[in-house]
Amino acid sequence: MNHILRIYDNVLELSASPENPTPLVKLNKVNPLPKVELYAKLEWYNPFGSVKDRPALAMLTEAEKNGLLSGKKIIEPTSGNTGIGLAAIANVKGYKIRVTVSSQIPEEKKTILRFLGAEVVEVADTLCPDPNSPTGAIGVAKSTTKLMPDKFYMPNQYENHANLLAHYTTTGPEIWKQTSGKVTHIVVGLGTCGTIGGIGRFLKEQNRKIKVIAVHPEENHHIPGVRSKKQLEVTKLYAPELYDQIKEVSDKEAYDMCNRLNKEESIIAGPSSGMVVAGAIKALSSEEGLAVLIFPDNIFKYTSYLAKPQQTNPAAEQIFTELTQLARNSYTTMNPDEAKTWMEKEKPLVIDVRSQEAYAQGHISGAKNIPLQELMHASLPEDREHPIMTVCQRGNSSIVGLLTLQAMGYKKVKSMNKGTLGWIEAGFPVEK
Ligand SMILES: Cc1ncc(COP(=O)(O)O)c(C=O)c1O
To answer: Whose CA is nearest to atom 7 of ligand 1?
Structure first.
């Protein structure tokens, strides 16, 4: 194992530690606080892509040490990340794993879990599993273990002290070392509360003035991996006495900030990281110092969540409107009288891009009818220098025809302004 050259004998040696910390990156553009520097700790640099690789390794190492795993299959309820960490580590160590998940978690997480070889049992549950539901992810995993104790071992991240200890022995010491003890605040989202508990306890032992800020989402939220106030009340590792402030963040605030992190900082953070930044800004407006924010995972596992509100794709529509406006210039469009002169001189192929019915009611003599949607597959001149004029009813679709032909490589394309109706108004003949 060599952390300088980054050469390893197996992938587990990549696991984060004070000698091999995940990166701390300063937030430069989204931080409006005058007296607090914000540093993001990018937990997707863990070997299997999230903060949960740390407790996954700690829980399995502890279970192995205590002889709890031999001959057993691992079973764990998860909102995705713990399951991914456990499944990858189980593969290295030679164990089988079943994960129970809420059907509401992103498809990407289910797919990755299956791809890693985990048996995925989907159940009806809240996004973050509800510990009080006997048919939810936690309930099903618990009853499976109870009914078949010799066949299954459940690490149970929600109650397992090794979850918290993983952060007490790695994440906390990393932050202390990376900031040379200058850290004044840590800001952490609440899920099982292992991350905040482990880091918070370690750092307060180094300097009791360090403040621990907890951030949680609103009720009925859509931020995978974290828990609302009500969901937290039933979480065993939840320890509000340790937190100096607790802030709530709405879905909108979290997703807006996630968007800004990706677009402005080029930090490819996921939704719960957006939530943490939004919470930090609320909590630290009158504070001073250096705050470390835990960014649990990156955006890649949430693309299906992002696609939903954008189905109409307004950006593409706007770009298209801009393009057609730009194409309507004096080099590429002509009024009917100019067009007539150009046609007599250059003998272009005249393409009428209207429907067959509109064409049949009257078209410029010699014009070939190729409706717009057929243009890309029509038989057209081989020679890309061949002059072409596009015509329609009023001079709008012909611009789209012009753009299409230009995209196909035709260099001498003109679109006729005002269309066939303008041609008739100018006193020129049409045929039927
Ligand atoms: C994306 C994401 N954010 C935040 C957390 C919260 O971490 P913890 O469970 O240690 O409270 C998790 C935990 O599953 C997570 O998956």
So the answer is: 191
Q: Would residue 209 show up in a list of annotated catalytic residues for this protein?
A: no
Question: pLDDT tens across 193-218, in order?
Answer: 999 999 999 999 999 999 999 999 99
Of 195, 212, 236, which is best to mutate to test ligand 1, by the most ligand atoms within 8 angstroms of its C-beta?
195
199, 177 in Cβ contact below 8 A?
no
Sheet holding 36-42, edge to edge: 24-26, 36-42, 289-295, 185-189, 211-217, 245-249
* Active-site residue, selected from the candidate residues 41, 52, 110, 211: 52
The average confidence (pLDDT) of the chain is: 94
User: What's the topology of domain 314-425?
Assistant: Oxidized Rhodanese; domain 1 (3.40.250)
Q: Where are the domains of the chain?
A: 11-50+161-309, 53-153, 314-425
Q: Cβ–Cβ contacts within 10 Å for residue 230, how many?
A: 12
384 burial type by CB count under 10 A (0-12 exposed, 13-18 middle, 19+ buried): middle
* Of 371, 363, 411, residue with least CA distance to 387: 411
279 lines ligand 1 (CB under 6 A): no
What is the structure's pLDDT at 312?
Answer: 55
SS3 271: helix
- Cβ–Cβ < 8 Å for 123, 137: yes
Protein residue closest via CA to atom 6 of ligand 1: 191
Sheet holding 413-416, edge to edge: 333-334, 413-416, 388-391, 349-352, 368-369
